[in-house]
Amino acid sequence: MMKYKQNGSFYKLIIAALLLSVPFIFSCGNEISYVNQVKTLDSIQVQLSKIELQLRQIDTAKLAAVSAQIGDELSFIQTNYKDTMKKDMAMVLTEYQLIRKSYNLILLKFPEAQKELTITKEQLKSLGHDLKTNSIDKANVEGALNTEMGAANESIQTVILMNNIIKLRMPRFEELKPNVMDLVNELKEKAQK
Predict the structure, then answer these.
(1) Which of 17, 66, 121, 125 reaches 20 to 30 Å from 88, CA-CA?
(2) pLDDT-based confidence at residue 23 (cuts at 50, 70, 90)
(3) Same domain? 70 vs 135
(4) Domain ranges, residue 22
């Protein structure tokens, strides 16, 4: 009889342990795994790191120097050129001015692009942590992913556009510069006579 009482309390202990573990077992089963979303975020983080490197490689000092040089040359020409300008030279000067405007725009947008890239990387990291720890409401996951992926794409496209403008405009600047310098030198010679 004693054995039965011991076994009975043993069974009660087992039943109590099972009852206490049921909520834990069910909560473990209810956890949602965001493995694919985390992998996507990690991939975007790698892309953003590459883009950040490209952004750092933009030589803003050179862009500022070229922009200032173009501004000085155009100002000198505007002040000293009194005749009617030939059409092809007017087109060269118009394109020269467009190069300056595009460089000034890059210089204006550069700090903002740096800031947005940093914020986007931090937000992606935070979202990845929330997904890994399951601390984000399931209803908000898709919206948060879309928002952060949109911000990342915008940062990537901004830096790509900046680099494309520089790659396009710098050789064209070097190509147009001798024509502009010839005109500047011609005007200086006329001014000395």
Answers:
(1) 66
(2) very low
(3) yes
(4) 1-31
